[in-house]
Design brief:
The complex is a heterodimer of chains A (525) and B (301). Chain A is α/β, with parallel strands linked by helices. Chain A is built from 14 helices and 16 strands. Chain A is elongated and about 90 Å long. The relative contact order of chain A is 0.10. In chain B, a hairpin with a 2-residue loop joins β9 and β10. The radius of gyration of chain B is 18 Å and the shape is globular. The chains are: A alpha/beta (525), B alpha/beta (301).
């Protein structure tokens, strides 16, 4: 038996017509028949759980997971209320829902469970679970589709589902509830006259169905933005179900695809599709967008100053409760800075590290602490140590963590790792290596290396030293194959005559979208 | 029959936080307060409403979203539980309301005659949206007046904000005609915020006001600009600006509420009464009303 935690995946439409009015239109009836066949296949499978991702459950505050054990209500659709009511009573796998949330949080997502009587389960989830699992033979999990999430967040959400399944040793049937083209008619139409809204929508739907039939789910996932731009109403950020489905099923193209039914639903494209993991291979993926394991986007905008935390040392997600200082410990950063300066300003030369690390860190933990530390540092600008201690360079990029730019120990200077960030405006000379969604960008490694070395020079200058004092260099590159040559060329320009020892390492990532960071040891003047 | 009239128009935002903060008996969660600038403003407007003789509240809410035309509530009464899908931790409200079906049918009929796609909502199991519940609770917590909810036609998503602005004005003019023919005295409610970019995380204590602020300065500047237009009776200018404002601030005006109400009221050239402005989870919210009666109209803020 395969060790894949997903037995098969289904793509089904959210509209209530197959549930409430299958007899009113031939296509609606075919969709209903396909739904019924899927129900039979689920019953015959060894599935422990059905996981539903519905595009008609939009969330805003992260992703939500339904963990009410037996949600019960009578649902009515906002538009198609005239087709009838949808009474339901479902059975949720609460243990799995909690595990899925935990897995999502572990991958950097903002996530929470909902367990409230009367919580409005969306039309798509109600239709899918009512038709696929009417007797609640298998417990379910429903996850929301975050309105603002984009590719990386949705991919990670899918991977988190696999994490939770593997951790619990469960086998799942996963269900993506979504239309293909989703443009509906804006007027009432007789059911027998229903058709796909336009020839363009029909063409794109056929392309998507062809991908599904070929089992090319990962390729389809990487076409999501094109699909969204062509045949999706622009009310949300992106067409997400293929991202989630592909990530949950393992991100490949090896499936037996079966389009069981396809029909218009008030103009939109509805299809019931099954994808079953197979041994065969369609071949290499046609597209090759970067993969993402952990969401690192901006989801901490409510935290003070977090919107500015795009520099090294900034945080990439909300603080865990354990990391978050108690509310009475949160203070206005400016007040803290002033307090610290008043207390340590004159003696910061010998106590800077302690002041920044202990006082600022304890007073305002996390990113705010980092900012405070760096601003305190700026207020003590240029204070050179005449003896061992921390050194802050006024004109260098701010150290956003609780660390100094340099530290003197005896006759040696130890410089913190320095990236290419501009001390003037925090921009990255040569450009960032990726955009906010993690999509790779073209960048100039030579410009980044130049900026890096210039920042080192600035810091050494604050120590009354210069590049010629450097005795050892450690360089970190995120893409050795691509960047070594350009980096090496610039390095040689500055260090050929200095002849410092050097180590160059390839690493997976740096805290911000930069390609190079350098750390040096120098002889104090 | 006496000609009906619109006796007041209210811009009444519906963040569930406001009901949560107030701790009414109908709402399950308990809070320590919060968002007082808006709640106190709402309370003052509710007091004004008590002094006005009216028959029904007609509300257009962006949380009853329809794509196939505009729908109108068509069942005499609704009694159920409203749970906010985004903030279920804050809003689980037990409501019991009456609907002025006669007025609702009249508006549906007149709007239909003017070429607008319409539908009466006759399903008794329908759950009234939380925008209606929140705004109506804050304006009339006694629930002693019947309500008509008008859905927000979102087929502008297929087109543009400009199309929304035109459609909502046509609907407003039709509703005004229907109200006049009904012989009733009606209070209109546009249930929405202004700027609507909001935080995507929530403070551990939702009502922690030390964590509340407008999402960004640009939103604030836009909000102040349009509030200034309201204060100076320049609603035609605001409605003309509406597409740009809506797109720049992701404003909830995209649902058409304020445009609909202003069109129904004939684009007031008199000052709005401003009762309060405050952010809620980063969105910009103003409580305001337009009083056509220059005797009772006052300068509040």
């Amino acid at each position: 038996m395969s060790d894949d935690p997903v037995l098969f995946g289904l793509y089904v439409p959210p509209h209530p017509h197959p549930l409430l009015a299958p007899d009113q239109n031939k296509g609606w009836g075919e969709l209903r028949a396909a739904y019924d066949e899927c129900r039979r296949r689920i019953e015959e499978s060894e599935a422990d759980i059905i996981i539903v991702y519905s595009t008609t459950w939009p969330s805003i505050v992260g992703h939500q997971f339904q963990v009410q054990p037996e949600p019960e209500w009578v649902h009515v659709d906002d538009d198609f209320h005239f087709l009838g009511s949808m009474p339901y009573k479902f059975k949720m796998d609460v243990e799995f829902g909690n595990a899925y949330r935990d897995a999502a949080e572990s991958r950097g997502l903002h996530a929470r469970t909902v367990a409230y009587h009367g919580f409005p389960i969306d039309t798509g989830s109600v239709v899918a679970l009512s038709l696929l699992n009417p007797d609640n033979r298998i417990p379910a999990c429903i996850v929301s589709s975050n309105m603002y999430s984009n590719r990386s967040e949705t991919i990670v959400l899918g991977k988190a589902a696999r994490d939770a399944l593997k951790a619990q040793g469960k086998k799942a049937v996963i269900v993506a509830v979504s239309s293909l083209s989703n443009r509906m008619f804006t007027k009432h139409v007789d059911p027998v006259d229903d058709r796909i809204h336009s020839a363009k929508d029909e063409d794109w739907n056929q392309k998507i169905l062809e991908f599904f039939e070929d089992g090319r789910l990962e390729d389809l996932s990487q076409l999501s933005r094109d699909i969204h731009g062509q045949i999706r109403v622009q009310k949300v950020v992106a067409y997400k179900p293929a991202w989630w489905m592909a990530a949950t099923m393992g991100q490949h193209n090896n499936y037996d695809g079966e389009v069981m039914a396809y029909a218009a639903l008030h103009g939109s494209g509805g299809a019931v599709i099954q994808l079953t993991p197979s041994e065969g291979s369609f071949g290499d993926k046609e597209f090759d967008e970067d993969d993402v394991e952990t969401y690192r986007g901006d989801r901490n905008v409510l935290d003070a100053n977090a919107g500015d935390m795009q520099a090294p040392g900034g945080v990439d997600g909300p603080l865990d409760e354990a990391e978050r200082p108690a509310d009475d410990e949160w203070r206005n950063p400016v007040e803290v800075i002033d307090d610290l300066y008043d207390e340590y300003g004159s003696s910061v030369i010998s106590h800077a590290t302690g002041a920044l690390g202990a006082a600022a860190g304890a007073a305002i933990a996390g990113p705010v602490g980092g900012v405070a530390a760096s601003i305190v540092a700026k207020k003590t600008v240029g204070k050179m140590m005449s003896k061992d201690g921390a050194i802050i360079a006024e004109d260098a990029p701010s150290a956003v963590g609780a660390y100094p730019h340099a530290r003197r120990m005896g006759n040696m200077l130890f410089i913190s790792g320095v990236g290419p960030r501009s001390p003037v405006d925090n921009t990255i000379p040569g450009g960032p290596i990726e955009d906010e969604d993690g999509n790779p960008l073209d960048y100039d490694i030579e410009a980044q290396t130049e900026a890096c070395i210039e920042n080192i020079r600035i810091i050494l200058q604050a120590c009354e030293a210069d590049l010629s004092n450097i005795v050892d260099v450690t360089t970190f590159l995120v893409d050795m194959k691509r960047d070594f040559s350009g980096y090496n060329k610039v390095y040689a320009k500055h260090f050929e005559e200095i002849q410092a020892t050097r180590t160059t390492l390839a690493i997976q990532a740096l805290p911000t979208p930069i390609a190079v960071e350098m750390k040096v040891i120098a002889k104090a003047p | 029959m006496t000609k009906g009239e619109i006796v007041l128009g209210c811009l009444a935002p519906h963040p569930p936080h406001l009901v949560y903060a107030e701790n009414p008996d109908e709402n399950e969660p308990i809070s320590e307060g919060g968002w007082e600038a808006l709640r106190w403003g709402y309370a003052r407007l509710a007091r004004k409403l008590k002094t006005i003789d009216y028959d029904a509240l007609v509300i257009l809410t962006p949380h009853w979203q329809t794509y196939i035309g505009t729908h109108f509530l068509g069942v005499d009464a609704f009694k159920s539980l409203s749970v906010d899908p985004i903030f279920p931790n804050l809003f689980r409200y037990h409501y019991d309301l009456k609907v002025d079906v006669e007025l609702s049918e009249k508006m549906c009929e007149i709007a239909g005659e003017s070429g607008i796609i319409t539908k009466m909502m006759r399903n008794p199991d329908f759950r009234v949206d939380y925008g209606t519940i929140t705004s109506c609770h804050l304006l009339n917590p006694e629930w002693d007046k019947p309500v008509v909810t008008v859905s927000s036609n979102r087929n502008r998503h297929y087109y543009s904000v400009e199309v929304m602005n035109e459609q909502a004005q046509a609907l407003g003019r039709a509703c005004r005609k229907a109200i006049e023919e009904s012989g009733k005295r009606v209070v209109l409610i546009a249930s929405h915020s202004l700027s609507h970019r909001h935080f995507t995380t929530e403070a551990p204590l939702p009502e922690d006001m030390s964590r509340e602020h407008i999402y960004n300065h640009s939103q604030y500047v836009w909000d102040m600009k349009v509030i200034d237009l309201m204060r100076n009776g320049k609603m035609q200018e605001f409605i003309d600006l509406m597409p740009e404002f809506t797109e720049q601030t992701m404003a909830e005006t995209e649902g058409g509420g304020l445009t609909w109400m202003m069109a129904a009221m004939g684009m007031p050239e008199y000052p709005a009464e401003i009762y309060g402005y405050q952010s809620v989870i980063g969105t910009g919210n103003v409580v305001a009303c337009w009083d056509p009666n220059d005797v009772t109209r006052e300068m509040v803020l």
